[in-house]
Protein 1
Amino acid sequence: MVKQKKVIVNSNMLSGAIVSSGLTQADVARQIGLSIAAFNNKINNKSEFKASEIVMLTLILKLTREEAYSIFFAKVVDC
């Protein structure tokens, strides 16, 4: 049986990128169409970001490809 994998977000780096952008978590959540609670669950690795959300966040926060990879694909773990 194949084990499920989960991608862990680097929460500290993502929060720092949001602060650096001058936006709040509520601003960013609204821009990508999530409630604040749902966005916080994703930041805190309680649920995973969709690919489309990662793309939107990369654009909104003006992340480089390397920054986006470091944030959204920080670690892969077995479930």
Note: Residues 18 and 24 are 7 Å apart (CA to CA).
Protein 2
Amino acid sequence: MCVIVRASIEYVCANDRVLAVDRAADQRTARVQLGGEEILLRRADTAAQEKYSNADYSLYLQGERAMLERSGQVLYGPC
């Protein structure tokens, strides 16, 4: 079975907030826009879902669901 992962997707989150995510073709990095700031995240190894993170932010992707948190506090989600 072949799964096609889109490079860019906009997730609609709680309160109709939109989280735009751009993934690199190799899926090793992802970028999100947050208040005019572009945040680069690197892929982390997890068993259940896609996770991208850096020192401050974590992005969790699972199918049509997404969540972005900073230092453990949810910024966008559920999406």
Note: The chain is about 0% helix and 55% strand.
